[in-house]
Amino acid sequence: MNKIISTVLLTLASLPAWANLNIFATVPEWGALAKEIGGDKVRVYTATNAFQDPHRIEAKPSLLAQARQAQLVIAAGADLEIGWLPLVLRDSGNSAIQTGRPGYFEASAFVNRLDVPTTLDRSHGDVHAAGNPHIHLDPRNVLKVGEALTARMAELDAANAASYQAAFKTFAGKWQVAIARWEKEAAPLRGLPVLVHHQSFVYLDNWLGLKEIGSLEPKAGIEPTSGHLTGLLTRQQTVPARMVLRGAYQQEGPSQWIAGKTGIPAVLLPYTVGGTPEAKDLFGLYDDTIQRLLKGIR
Amino acid sequence: MQKSFAMAALLAASCGVQAATDADLAAIRSQIDEMKKTYEQRIAALEQKLAQAETKSRQEPPEVASAPVASPSPSAAANGFNPEVSLILQGQYRNAKDIPGRAIGGFVSAGGEGLNNRGFSVDETELVLAANIDPYWRGQAIVAMADGQANIEEAWFQSLAIGQGVGLKIGRFRSGIGYLNEQHPHARDFSDAPLMYQAMFGDSYAQDGVQLKWLAPTPLFVELGGEVGRGANFPGTDRNRNGAGGGALYVHVGDDVGFSNSWRLGASWLKTRASERSADFVDLGGVAAQGRFAGDSTTWLADFVWKWAPNGNSTQQSFKFQSEYFVREEKGSLSCSSDDATSLCGMPVDSRYRTRQSGWYMQGVYQLMANWRAGLRYEQLDSGVRDFGSNAANLVIDNYRPKKATAMIDYSWSEFSRVRLQLAQDKSMPGITDHQLTLQYVMSLGAHGAHKF
Prior knowledge:
The structure holds 2 protein chains of 2 kinds. Chain A is built from 10 helices and 8 strands. By secondary structure, chain A is α/β, with parallel strands linked by helices. Chain A has a 4-stranded parallel β-sheet, with helices on both faces. In chain A, helix 7 links the parallel strand 5 (193-196) and strand 6. Chain A is globular and about 60 Å long. Chain B has a domain at 156-439: Beta Barrel (Porin). Chain B has helices spanning 2-59, 195-201, and strands at 84-95, 119-122, 125-132, 137-146, 149-159, 166-174, 206-215, 221-229, 246-257, 261-282, 288-308, 318-337, 349-369, 372-387, 403-414, 417-429, 432-446. Chain B is elongated, with a radius of gyration of 39 Å. Chains A and B meet through helix 3, helix 4, helix 5 and helix 6 of A and strand 7, strand 8, strand 9 and strand 10 of B.
C-alpha cells in the first residue's frame, strides 16, 4: 500500500519534469515559430487560427483554461490582442505569464514598428498607439523575433537551452537562404501599386517595395462602406492600383467588388500560417504569399 | 624720356599680364578637366561600390539586431503611469405607460432604479479607471454618475502574482454569480436587465468583500469561486454587526466545440441575511402597509451561454444564446405595520415568512452583418410559494406569473459606438400590458476595455 502511494506521489512530483515547455501563442505565426525553435521540447497551443480576426477574439473559457497552464505566452503585442488577452492573463490565475514577467513575450517589442501614429484619436479608427502590429510579414522581423524568443525559451527552460539555440541556428540559416530566394522571386513586385483591405500588409509592402495606395476600410477597423469603395474606384482613374490584397480572415466581398469594377485581380494572401493550404508553416507562408502576388501581375 | 619709358614699361607689363592670364586659364582649364575626369572616375567607382553594397545588403539580410528596438512612446513622461481611463455615455428615449410605483407582480420590490423613466433621459454615465498597481496587484474603480449623485459601482484590487490558478479580488465588485451579473449595463444585449435580475437584485448584485477564485489546471475550463462580504444589497440588508453578512459560491465550466462554437455553463449559490427589509404591501382592506422581513435569503442560479461564429470569426456573423434560471427561498419572519390606524396592520402583526420563487429568461442575439445585430428575449417569473403565516389574514398576497417578450435591433459604427431600438411587451404587472419602445445609445470613450466572455 505504502509502495503504491509513494509511486503515485513520485509520479505526480515528476510530472512537471516530463512536461514540455507549455507555450500559449496568440496567433499562428508565432506559434509556428515557437515550434521551429522548440521542436518536440515544447507543447504549443495557438489561440487563434488564420480565419479569425486577431483583433476580435473573446476571452473564451477555453483560452482561460489554456493560459492557466502556460509557462510562456507569445503575443504579437502592439495592442493587437487588447480586446481579450489582458483579461485572459488576469483571469488565468497564472502569475508566470503576467506582463513584465519572463513568461510574457511580446513579439513586436523586438522590431522596428511602422505606422506609429503621431496623434492618438479614434476619429482615425481603431489605431494602435504602438504602431502597426502585423509585423510578421517581413521575414527579417521573424529572425529578430526568433532570436529574442530563443533567448526567452532558453531562459525559461534552461535544461533545453542548447536544443533551442541549435534549432534556431538551423532555422535562421535556412530562413536567410529563403529570404534571398524570396527577394529574388519578388523583384518584379517592386514599386507595384496595390490596394489593401486592412493595413495588414504594411511590413510586407515595406520589405518587397509594394506601394500601398489605399485601403478598403475607410479607417482602421471600420468596415468598408460603399461610399468609400466608390471613392477608391474614382481614384483608380488617376492613381491606378494593380491589385487588391486581402488576408484569409478578411471578408471577400469588398475586394471582389473592386476587382469586378476595375478589372484588377483580387489577391487572397494567407496572411498567416494556415491561411491557405500551401501556407503550412512559416516557409510555406512566404512561398505562397509571393507566388500569389506574382500570379496577380501575370 | 622718362615718361615714355614708363609708358612702355607699363604697356609691356600690361601685355605681360595679358599673356600670363591666357596661359594660366588654359592651364586651369586643363587642370579642371583633369580633376573632372578623376572625380568622375572616383564617383563612378563609388557608385559601383554602393550598388554592390546595396545588392549585397538586399541579398544578405541585415544582421539580427541583438538589442530590442525600444521606440520611445510619446507618453513616456510621468503621466504615462496614469490609469487607463474610459467613460461610458449611455442614454435613451423611452415610451411606456405611466405606472406609479412600478413593481413586478408577485415579488417584493428589489429597488431597481430608472425603470419608470419615460421620454428622454441620460442613464448613468460610467467612469472607469484601471491600472496595474505594482507587479502584484491591479486596481479598478467604476463610478456611476447620475444627477446629483455618484455611486461607487466597483472599487477593487485583484491579485496578479499568486499563481496556481488562484485569483483574489478585494473591495466592492460585481459578484461572479450567474452570467449577466458581472456584465455592466453597457455590455448587455438589451437596454434593460431581464425581469429575473430586476426581481432578484434590482439590477445586479454587488458585494463589498473578498472574492477568491480558482481555475483548475485542466484543458476543460473549470472555475470555482467563493465570496464573503457585507451582503448589504437586496435581498440582504445592511446590518450593523461584525463578521460577514453574505456569501456566494459558484462553479463555471466551459469549452469550445470545433473552431466555431464556445460555451459556458454555471451554477451559483448566494446566501444573505436581512433584518428590517421593508417592502410595500396592501392590506386586505386596500390600505397601504409595510412588511418588514427578517431572515435568510438563499438564491440558486443556473446559467448557460453558447456562442457561435463561422470559424470563430465574429466580424461578419455570429450568434449568441444565453439563458438563466433562478430559485430563491426566504425563511424568517414578517412584521406588518402601517401608518394608517384603520389598517389591519395598524397594530404591528408578526408572522412567519416563507417564500420559494423562481424565474428564467432566454435570449438569442444574431449578428446579421458587420454592424447589425438583432435579438429576441423571452422571460417568465413565478411568484411561487408565498407563505405569510398569520399575516395572510392581513395582507394581499399576489400570486402571479410575470411575462415579458422583447425584441431589439442594434447598429454599431465601430466597437466603441452603438444605437439600439428595443420593443417590449411587458406583462410583469397583474392586469397591465405595457408596450415599451426604447431607443438607446452606448458610447465608449478612451481606453480599449476588454469584455468578458
